[in-house]
Fold these 3 entries.
Entry 1:
Amino acid sequence: MKTNGVLVLGLTGILFLLSVAFLHSDSFQSNVTGEIVRHKRSSGVAASNESQHQTNASQSSNHNESNSSHGSSTPVHRYQVVTINWARVANPFIISIWIIFAGITKIAFHLIQKYVSRVPESCILICLGLVVGGIAYSIDKDHRIEQLLFNPDTFFLFILPPIVMEAGYFMPKESFFDNLGTILTYAIIGTIFNALCIGSSLFAVYKWGLMPGLEEYGSLEFLHCLLFGSIISAVDPVAVISVFEEIHVNTVLYICVFGESLLNDGVAVVLYKMFEGYIEIGQENIIGIDIIAAIASFFVVAFGGLFIGILFGYAGSFITKYTVHNRIVEPTFVFVVCYIAYLTAEIFHLSGIISIVFAAFTMSTYVEHNISTKSHTTVKYGMKMLANIAETIIFMLLGIAAVSDFWQYWNTGFVLWTLFFITLYRAIGVVGLTFVINYIRLDKINRVDQFVMAYGGLRGAIAFSLVSLTQPEHVPTIKTMICSCIVAILFTSFVQGSTIRPIVELLHVKTSAKHKKSMFEDVNLRMIDHVMTGVEDIIGHHGHHYWMQRLQKFNTEYLMRWFVRDPYLSRDHELLDTFHRINKRDAEDLVEEFERGNSSNEIASGTFANLLLPYEMRRSHSHASFNHLVRQQGVTNTCIDMHALEAQGRANGAGRTLEDADVHHLLQQNLYKPRAREVTRYRRGNIEDDGTRKRQEEEILIRRKINVRHRRHHKHKHNRHKTRSSSKSQMSGGSIKKHSTGSCSESTRLLQAPNFVVEQQQEMKTAPPEEDQGITFTAGKKPVQPRNGCSTARNPLGFMSSFDVLPEETLTDVAAEGVEETDTTRVDIESCAIDRELPWKRNPSNNDVVSDPHNTTSYEEPAPEISPESCSNLENVWPSNTNNNSSHPEDGGLHFILDKWESLEEDQI
Amino acid sequence: MGSKASLHLREEEIEAIQQETGFQSNQIIRLFSRFTCLDKEQNGFLTRDDFMRIPELAINPLADRIVDAFFNGGEEHVNFRQFMRTLANFRPSSAKTAEDSPNSRTNKLKFVFSLYDYDSDGMISKKELLQILKLLVGANINQDQLSHIAERTLLESDTNNDRHISFEEFKTVMARTEIDTKMSVRFLD
């Protein structure tokens, strides 16, 4: 390990020297070119051959030689075997070298991490930058290199966007919205407070004569101090991200510091521009209108950025809605649309950071549903990669830029006072604002968290870029300010950045729950969410949750349908994908076990694969081993073997964790969403839409009804149930009468119940009742529109249809609950196509209806004949029920489903 | 609402509730007005129907269980005292909160545990777990999978291999979760 580290470091060193050499030559070249251009401009003689700028190989080996050769270039050129054209590729080449350099330094740090684990990466990168900068400074007397390397334009246009884009895209939405008020308070009020206080304090100290020697560099006015204060007050997102990612503090703390650092850009930019403008106007010429204009510009800058960001976010989402045939362009849209949002905001001098953060934020909500899994991965890794590289480059460039000639304007007083004030006012700001915020917050931000929040107020490259942008004509003491800014950055990065981790450990700051949640915990948390929603409903107080819900409703009812391709499809698609993945992995596991030859029936019967076997078969019939296995065992063994599971778990720890993850995923997908909190809970595939919500509510209601019925049945058994069910039956208004078999009276009564029940029945009756209830709804909610062919895997119903490609004996084997089940399964296969077209046409229990299994498409549906004795209000909604009255009265329609439901609930009570 | 004299809250009642639950008096008054609002028949107690009449609650998958928590011991009615006693579980807690006060971490956890523990034997069996899962999970997961999930969940939490989850085991599972924050509601003053 150690040698590896040394090797990589050596490699890094070589690369570094190489890059310095290239840099040098480049700066030299540009120097020469510049001279040539000047020469050309003045005399206009013989510059054409220079612009081509070809030197031969021998000359290029030594720059000095090359220099001399340029000076005395001969008019006649012989033909060259090898020519070198460095100037043409110089810039991209250097950039590439830098990126590789940055990447290798990252590798090197991880290899030597045990020695420097206490020091954050950003510090090491800055150090490295300082070294590179030092060497470059000593080589290059004209200081072109640092202008080439760290120029605010490059920084703002190319290096910063990827970082904030990544931050916005992967912003934890839930905690962001939960803490929005706190974040905004810190970002807006906190930053303004800091800027004004730092500025005025510095000026006061200056006036008191506590900064001796500053007058030599120029006059310092009040506005200059305020300008500097606004630059230095903003916490830097890049620095915060890099440091807080390494220490895993709790979510609230993280999102507060992180969100503040992202959103305070709007404020910082406004303040900067405002004071810059005031300086141009001149302190004595400022009138009231300027101040009003500045306040107005704050809203324009912040909300303008927000608006542009969201606009582009929606535009991007809308585009990705139609990329289904061009999957490859999907990631491009995500990246470029975000970037354009940033650039657009910059055009209008709005907050580019806010714009790109919200563009990415908006996009991640919708785009995730539209793009393919592969594109999703691409976007994810692309973002991370770009951000990481940009971050590395920023810190190195910061180090490089720190070595420059502005140090001769050093003023100890100014620098020290700056350090003192930024620390002081950060602390005061955080403590003061938290004091106010804590009155409103439910979970109070405690002292320790406040301390970490104040201590984590790192300054970074944005401040440096802004201060470098400031013109010396406006602020004569700007060089001193640059010094001070650099010192503040270095101080916060090095001292605070590297001590924050020990301090977090020392103070026992609640760290984030980075542990993988166990399944039980997951279930519990979801349960608690529901309970809390319920309790809020009971006490009738809607605050934060209420508005979130309104937003959510708006989103699902109006926005989703515009920006998401097909919420229904993608949901089921996702679900099936999960099934598929579980199955695939289990299949692999099984195959492995078979190959190892230690497979016992016991183990095999306990695996998840067996449970899901039917699905696997529906999806793919190529797994011969599965069929074999099934035949071996006769039926799918649905009971879980504890020992087998445990054995499996022990034998294959990694496999089990993976499986856990999938089960998690499955739960995540299918747990009912609590009403209020869900807005923040978007995840890929976790689509909430009008229909889903409605369905969920209906499901719950119908379950409750059945439950009530059930309780009445059992009231003679359990005393406890008695009281309950009586009250329940009151509640349901007596609409549900006694359970009676063999008639449709039950369903009739239910139909008289409120509307939603009817709707629900309509949905339910389309379902194949012999399936588990899980599939019931999945299938049932498919719209009635006809579709040709049921072979596509994307189709939520498709999996059923692929049954018929299976050998029939397998089917018989698959059927779990005996012959009858097998029959119905087969019916289901044949009729699924019809079912999709006209859901009520299918008679689940009447096998005679489906006469020819191979003629599904041309199958003619018999007109629903309504028996005269059937209730009239059932005619439209439930023909099948009346249809099969004669054959299997209790199996058809609602009755069957109710029975089914009841039997499901049976073991529940 | 609350025009009848019997429905007015007496000072000593407020004080007693304050003592018992830790609510502030204006919170109690506010909640009392909510209580009378829910009490459609104006008879001074709430029935299950009263709860279920709240439209948002009716669509809560756990509504039955939540309402059950208010009716301890299978009673038919819940009066304001009992109502407040249950709600006291959801008061925000702090480090200073006494262990035996209703809003302590343990009691919050106990509340959740009792939602699982349908037969109140102090243990969560697989059956009880499965019931909750069924309530929580949409109809998209079939029985077998759900059963499998329940099995797995039980397995990972059951440390003493008795096929049941005791409260201690439950506590261990939830040890790293911020129950205090999650299970707190801001009661308006």
Note: The CA atoms of residues 526 and 832 of chain A lie 35 Å apart.
Entry 2:
Amino acid sequence: MGSSRSSLSRVPDGQQLLQETGFSAAHLLRLHQRFQFLDKDSRGSLRSEDLEAALSENPIGVRIVGAFFQPGQETVDFPSFVRVLAHFRPTEKNRTRDGVQPDPADSRNRKLKFAFQLYDRDRDGKISRTELLQVLREMLGLQVTEEQLQSIAERAIQEADLDRDDAICFDEFRKSLEKVNIDHKMSVRFLE
Amino acid sequence: MATRGRSGFCRSLPELELLLLAILVLLNGTVLSLEPATSSETHTREGNNTSKKPFPVIGIMYDDVSVPFEISLWVLLASLMKLGFHLIPRLSNVVPESCLLISVGLLVGGILKLARDEVPPVLSDRIFFLCLLPPIILDAGYFLPIRPFVENIGTILMFAVVGTLWNAFFVGGLIYGVCQLAQDKYSEINLGDIGILPCLLFGSIISAVDPVAVLAVFEEIHINELLHILVFGESLLNDAVTVVLYHLFEEFMESGSVSAVDAILGLVSFLIVALGGVLVGAFYGILAAFTSRFTSHTRVIEPLFVFLYSYMAYLSAEVFHLSGIMSLIACGAVMRPYVEANISHKSHTTIKYFLKMWSSVSETLIFIFLGVATVDGEHHWDWIFITATLILCLVARVIGVVGLTFVINNFRIVKLTTKDQFIIAYGGLRGAIAFSLGFLLHTDHKKIFLTAIITVIFFTVFVQGMTIKPLVELLAVKKKHEAKRSINEEIHTRFLDHLLTGIEDICGHYGHHHWKNKLNRFNKKYVKKILIAGDRCKEPQLIAFYHKLEMKHAIRMVESGGGSKLNSSFPSTVSMQNIQPKIQSPPSARPAERALPQLTKGREEEIRQILRTNLQRTRQRLQSYNRHTLVVDPDEEGFDDLILKKRRRMELDWKIKEMTNYLTVPHAQGSPTMSRARMASDSQAYVKPGAKGVPSIQIDLASPQSPDSVRLLDEVGQDQGLTMSLPSSSSRAYKTGGKDDDRDQQKLLRCLSDPGPSADEDEDEPIPT
């Protein structure tokens, strides 16, 4: 533990990140190593090309990469990198980490919010029909016709849209996923 | 008055059945005893060859049909029992079906023993392992929910392998200790005589959780998916362990000595049995998938391939002493996605219902035979042995589950709670597999072992089976979600899958999603191309799911009384108009969706009259009857247009308008009948085959794939009355969308679903019987 503490000092904002995200020191170090690996030019920050190089043929790859960058920024530094990845930490019910007691409902919400923002690129708080169509197009590619995409999008909005504003807001999004175990689905096990 | 009468009738029905049952059984007994009498009679007849015997008007020749007759009687008995239980809701709510069936078996066994003083050996191992068990396992394997199974495979394997081993050695070892302690040289069977190896063999037989019993009980309690798949998966996979241990200990018993080499060979043999079984199953599964690629012209025998290949997989595995159950599961699970993409939807329904039927009958028969076989057979009741076995089994199960969960929870994201552990431990039911394996034993102490096994089975099925439902309620364990997946869930789940794969790639972590993604890509790129016929191999799963949803919705619409949906957000046209005499709009039907006025009975009669008189000619043009070709069902053709686009619908509306201009009908053209008919029939008018008196032809105006029907209509043109000839301009409009339509046609034809006897079910889940 002592050695990791000392090497933690190499990580920018190490202590603060530990508290904020709930990662353990070992995890943080591993992430830092990964960050440095991705950062080929050793600039201390990543550009979108670096991240895209890691992704292999992911239909929504551009979106995922985009989620790391704040609007208007071109680079992402390590703290932001870690903050985004913190959304995918498995929530453990009884973990107290320096006084931060994770609340399961809250973490579920945070994960869902993150996913929602991936759909909602223009950040207006709603998934409009066009945004949904874009996502479907990316996922299904060239294998389906435009009309089929339209009908699927139609049906999806019809099902989820409860307040009839022809778009899916965050609450409706959350409601349509209430049967899915988000904690399980949106967690990556960093254990090795 | 009426209701009282009905309930009285219902109450008397099971009694009638019991009566019928008793009669059947006695008939069985008496007929069987008559058999030697009749054969002797014919012998004497033949002896007096010289005297002319009168022509036998009536004779009894039971010999020839005895075996099939008896089998049929048993199956009939089982089915009647099943029928009876569901007519008495009070009983079937409290007592699980398996208990009732065992009781019936006991009853029948008792009757048979009284009647003939001997009981037919019905639960012989050959009948059980070759005929009764495979349908149940195939049903389970074919409809295995793959996603939860694979997600929890680690846990399941731990429980199946380590748990069963622990149970076997714990029970076997401790029962040996008990026997040694309780030996009594003066009693009939000296417990101390039972060696360690027979005890271990006994332990291995009794420790396996039985899939049949688990299925029977868990189906009725509707527990949440995770627990169900854990216990059920364990019961399936522990077959390999049981097989290996059983053969191992049997070998050891014969050879008399155990060495370290043997133990290591046992371990190797376990791997071979398990993996070999899976490989054999996968091989046959791929064969089946490949065969199904070519069955587009012989749709009638498609289900047969599924059944045959699976049964072959089971038998082949049994030949090599591999695990037949795992082979069957692997075969079903591997072949399912490809076969379903290839076969017609009618075949799919056939497979589904045949499997459900066979497995249901099998299960019933197994439990009844268990009861019968209990009455038969020599038992030796030894209090100490049996109570010790019972207690040890329970204790071993609890300790095993708790210990394993403690270890497993470190590796799980969703941990297992205490409640979960309790249900898993409590759900470890023993069943007929243990009994059959015990039956096969060759040791001296078979009697006492069998009695103990039967007692444990009875205890688990009766006590645990009956109490698990109230316990589940008491502990407020999460139940199964009854609702089906919505399209949103599907879209978002896939989105999250991609997202997680991406995140894992960014982290450089080769996790769950990474490998799943790789497997999917491999599947899409190579495997699907080989195993799936035609264009379907390129269809993404989301689209298939969406089609299925639309179909189900359309069927529901049609069943709820017809009426076309003019709701603009549904581009798929649900435009079936049932011109049936009994279109009563049930008050519970959603009136908001029906945008058109219902035709009154009189008008419908008129319309049908018109159609009948004017289109009767076309009937003679149909193909000659051929048993081997599936008659084109008007319903099936009708679903073609369900995913047509909006503009096509409008095109058709236009065409109909033009068409009705050609109609020369005895009634005035502007009659309210015709105009209402025109409004009501959106794009097509279908005559459902069930409608009284109307010939079953299709007035297929709009389907681009049936040039025949267009030609038909042309031919009708010469007759009096109706002339329906499509305006030529419209036929040109058809050809433009030709290729697309063909593909759509194909997709639709496969996506069909028969409105089966039961309500919509999610086809991924096992249907409760």
Note: Chain B has 28 helices and no strands.
Entry 3:
Amino acid sequence: SKKCKGKKEKKKEKRAEEAEEKGPESESAETSSSTRPALPPTFSLSEIKNKQRRQLMFMKLKQEKRKQKLELRKKRRKEREALGDKAPPKEVPKTIENQRVYDETTVDPEDEEVAYDEGTDEFSAYFNKLINPKVLITTSDRPRGRTVRFCEQLATVIPNAHVYYRRGLALKRVIPQCISRDFTYLMVINEDRKVPNGMILCHLPDGPTAHFKVSSVRLRKEMKRRGKDPTEHYPEVILNNFTTRLGHSIGRLFAALFPHDPQFQGRQVATFHNQRDFIFFRFHRYIFRNEKKVGIQELGPRFTLKLRSLQKGTFDSKFGEYEWVHKRHEMDSNRRKFHL
Amino acid sequence: MADKSQTCSVWLGSETGILKGVSLSKKRAFNFCDMSSVSRDQEICALTWGDRQESEVLVGCVNGSVKTFSTEKGVFTETRVCGDISQGRFTGIAVTDRSLITCVESGLLKVWTEGSADTVEINVGGEVCRMRQNPSQRHRVATGGKENPLKVWDLERPDKPIFTAKNVANDWLDLRVPVWVRDVAFIPDSDRIVTCTGYHQVRVYDPSTPQRRPVLEAEFGEYPLTTLALPAGHDRVVVGNTHGQIAILDLRKGLVRGCMKGLAGSVRGLQCHPSSPLLASCGLDRFLRIHSLEDRSTVRLAPPILFSALLNVFFFSFLLKLVGSDAAGEVEEVKEEERDEVWDSMETVSEKGEKRTVEEEAEESRETAEKKEEKKKRKKAKK
């Protein structure tokens, strides 16, 4: 029986099995195989009950496959070199971003209606440099150390930001007070189990309210190879990959957090990079060493955001009207469909 | 322009003031806008048919003007000023034989008669959310709003409402139940009225009974219900809420029959086709979607059409070509007949939570009856 065999015999058995699968032609090459009992072609490695032997056989199988793959690759490379210029172009591997389902709401840069819509919406005042942003940062009730430090660091990153303790106040009462003191944004960091996990970004004079899920928060002291603390200069803002109409709205929401005239002397840049519906926030300082090389240092906190809902009007989760709500079962069913 | 507007079967109003027409057969949308005015205060908040033949669309804007758009010519023909911004937005526009009825948020309901400068004014209370006209008795109008219970007014006797709804009894904590009527609809062929509230309740009132409290009450979801539509057949109502959930409720027992998928933003407009089981919805997520009421799927022959501005209002005028492809049996004969006819259909105007007016045409039922008779005759003739 198979179980009584030793290592070498197992290897021979394996060869025999392969030989049998290849066909009667190869049998003549390996005479020893003819004396072995014929293995049923439906034999699979998982049927070997002995763990050591099974693992060995599997390892051998993998090595064989790897060898074959390398040979194939070498062959292809030789063919490609042989053909030279006439070689077919290299195939691009499929990634989820490549295979993304075309979103109908992708904004055409020449769309007049969208341009008009954006020219007259709530954020147009910033982009026309009429108003400077003033941000109020607060947390949910009774924040823990990590959240408090996160808020402080955010306040250094965002110019003209003020941190206040929440002290159990209702947001609906905070909002009219903010409006009367000329704040333009209200940012509430929600905390769960001593870790920040949510953010509500409310544009103040009756603007849209976005609710995000916050994850992967890294405070300044946890950053490797970071630079010195950020200065008071206004940073530049980079918004990557906000292509759809919803993405445009959110992008403008982020852009209006920062004043519209960046101070290039400060060499600081805040990046909001959208990939697969996750928005990655990074804060760097850059320096051009020569025309082609840039050095960057990461300062400041880093976190990722995921949009949960966008509501028209200021924060009113019960009676407000939602412009976009993330519905997990409908929207997350396709791995290649993204909304931002 | 004219030929484009003639093929449009669905009309939508957007927040930027542009009237959009959608041709479902061609699956394309066209913008019709007044040259001078593309601004936020021209935001369309009410739409209704100007006449029974559906050749004119009346568009109500935030700044208080009512524009007339001719579907045959494809241009805006007239503008009337029927109020101003201080009074609030239009919560409903309706048309009777020779007069225009408008209602604004502050509660002022005016009847503008053509030809004369007199207007009949009624104050329906404060903070009105919706005003609708009874499609069969066109001089009757229902209004409702926040802390403003449902009232049915007869325009020939404008002093007092014919019917005022009474608030439901105190709840189990003995607290007064707040009132917020967001949309109203008259159930055809009966006196009953369906309302949906901002506290996620759907109520049916029957003015013919002495009971002023609702005859039926049902709840759906946890979010305010913004709009309502009545499909053909008298036992169902479709409601939409601010979270993008659309549900079909049964009016016999008040149970939820099913929900429609797809919408991601607040539902601003819902409208059912009068004869075929189709439902169209539009909302703040900038899409127009057509759903099938039978199997609750999104009908494939009209994929969601994207608009680049928020949709406030919309209504239908379905051309039968759309429906003809669904009809089975006796294909050729039926198709020829149907191509000749234009079906009137309801309009729904849904805005940023403001008015909607729905008009159902009784002609269709007559036409279907006639068609059926003709078919039977032909069948007999063959035999």
Note: The first helix of chain B runs from residue 2 to 7.
